[in-house]
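Why do we care about 3D structure at all? Because function follows from shape, and shape follows, mostly, from sequence. That is the central idea of this module. The next example makes it concrete: a single protein chain, its amino acid sequence, and then its structure expressed as C-alpha cells.
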Amino acid sequence: MTSPAAAIFNAKTIAIVGATEKSHWPRNIFANLEKSGYSGKVFPVNPKRDEIFGVPCYPDLASLPEPADLALMIIPAPAVEGALRVGAENGLKAAVIYASGFGDGGREESIKRGAAFKEALGEINVPVCGPNCMGLVGVRENIYCYPHEHVSGLEPGPVALITQSGGTLSYYAKAGQERGIRFSYLISSGNELSLDLADYMNFVIDDPETKQICLFVEGIRKPDEFMKAAGRALEAGKPMIAIKTGRSQKSREAAQSHSGAVAGDYAAYEAVCERYGIINCETLEEMVEMTLTFQQGRLPKGPRIAFMTTSGGTVDLLHDYCEQEKTVVADLATETVEAIRPFVPADCHITNPIDTGAPVGVSGKSAPAEICKAFAADPGVDMVAWCNNMPGSARSAGALGEVKELVEFTEKPVISFARMPHQIPDGGLEFQEAANMPFIQGTRIGVRAMNALWFHAERAGRKTPTPPAPNGKKENCSGEALEAALEVKGLSSPKTARAANSDEAGKAASQVGFPAALKIISPEASHKTEVGGVALNITDETAANAAADSMAKKLHAIDANATIEGFLAQEMVSGVELLIGAREDDQYGPILIVGAGGVMVELVKDVALRLLPASEDDINNMLAELKVSSMLDGFRGSGPADKDALIASIKGLSEFFLDHRTWLSDIEINPLMVRPKGHGVCAVDIRTVKK
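And the structure:
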C-alpha cells in the first residue's frame, strides 16, 4: 500500500515558508538541508525579502520558478490555511506545519481553529505533518526538516522513530547516535490533523530498509487504523518498540492539553501491545537499549537465556531480575557443563547464571568467549548474555577477533550487558559495529531486552484475529434468559429463589437451603456490596427477613428514591474467588478481563487483560500472570481447583459477549467461584451494563 506520508519524503523541491535569518528554526533547517546534501531545490519564501541565506527569496508559493513538492510552514497559525491553499493551487504535494494553536493548549480560539482547519484539509487535499510539530528527517533522502543542528548528516540505518513529542526526536536521535543506533526516518507528528501515527507506520512498514519501528505515543487518535498498521508490522516481522504516556491521570490531562491527544485507558493499551507484539518500554533510556538489541537483527527460537558473568553479586541480581521479569533461565546440558569446565577454576560451581570468578585461559583462548560458545552450542539455550563492558572500559570485552568469532559461531542472539551504565570509550562504537554484538548498559535492562526479543519472535509473522460480527438476541441479556445462555457456555448459577419483599426473604432462603446468601435487587445497586446489599451465611428464616429489611434501609439511606425490586436468595458456594468480565473499550474495542475476585478486587488489582477474541492459550497466559493463580494450583494444603472448567467458562463468557455486544457494553461475574477439580465453576453474581 502507498501511504500519503510518502509525498513528503519523495519531495524533489522544498519551500521554506517563513524563511528569516532572525529565527533559528528556518535558518537551521536551510543549513541542515544544504550540509546534508539534499539533491533537490530549496526555495525560501518571505514577502519582505528578495534574497536570504545567499539565495533568491520569493513572496509566496505561487511565485516560485517551479512548484514546490513540500512546503515547510514556519509561520504563525492564523496565516497557515491561506498559504496552504495557495500552495495547493500551485502544485504543492505535501506540507509540514510547525505552528501550535490548532486544538492544543485548551484555549477556545485554538480549539475552534483546529476544528476549522481539519475541515479545510479535507477540501485542500494536501497531506500535512503537524500542526504543532518540529518536523522530520528522511536520512537516505537527505531531507532534514528538523530545526536542531545536530539532527543532520546522519548515517542511514534500519530504525524509524515516530514521535508525537517534537522535542523527544532531538534527544532520542542524539542518544541513539551516541550508542550506535542508525536511523532511516525520524518523524515528529504533532497534532496529527491530517497524517497520523498509522500513516507514518504504514510508510515505514513498506520501506524495505526500515527493520524496526520506535514510537513515542501520547494518544492514539485513530485506534482502528493504528491496530491495522501494527498488525501489518507484526505480519512483516518488524519489531515495534514503544513508550506511551498516560499511566497517570495527570499525564493524560497534560497530553490532551498540549497536543489534543486522548490518552485512553492504559491497561487497554497494554492489551493492544500484547496482541500486536508492541514492546512497551518503561523509560526512554530503556527504549534506546531495546532498539540497540534488535539492531543486531537476530531473533531467538525460544525464551531460554544463559548468562555469563565473573561476579557473584551480578549473579544474585540476575536471579532477582529474572524472577521479577519472569525470565526463563536455561538449564545447562551435562555436555555444556563439561565443555565449560576447562575454562573455570576447579572449585567453580557451573550453573546458570554462572560466576566464573577469574576465568582460566586455555591455549590463549578467551575463556569468557569460549564459555559463551558452549552456551550457544547447547540446544536448551536460545540466547546468550555476556556481562561485559565495551573495550577500553573496566572489565571490558576481549579482542575484536574473539568477539566476532563468538557472534559468527552461532545464529542465536548474543548480547553483552554492563552491570551499570558507563561512558562509551573511544573506539567503542566501531568495536560494537564490527562485532555485531550490542553492548547494553545495565543488568536489569539486559534481562528485559532479551525477554523482548522472545516476546517479538514468538509473535512475528502472526496474523492477528478480528472479532466476529455479533448476532446475539437482546432478550438473552437479562434475567433468567441471561443465566440460561451463560449456563450453555459453562457458567452455571447457584440455586436461587426470589422474594418480592423483605417479608418473603425467609421463605426464599429456606427454598435454597441454609446457610444461604441474600442480595438486594435494585437498579441503584449494581455493586451490591458497596451499598450493604449482600448478607452471607444466613442460618434461618428470621435472620433472612431481618437482613432484607436492613438492606432496604441502608439503600434508602443512600438514595431515598431507590427502587427495590425484591431480594435474591442463593445457596452458599465455596471455592477460589475470581472476577471475569468483558467490556467494549471506547478506543480499542472488546476486551477480556480476568482477575482476583470478591469485595477486595479494586484494592488488590490483580488483573490481566486481553483483546477479544481470546484463545485458550491467551486465557492460560492471563491466568499465569495473576498472583491468585497459585490458589488455583492448590495452596497450603488445599487441593487444585477446576482449572479446565475455569478456562472453558472464560472462553464461554468471551464468546457470549462478542455475540451480544450490540446490546451490552459490559458484563462482569464477580465472584466466579472455581470449585475443586472436577466440580466446575459457579457464577455467583452477574452484572451487565446495557448500551
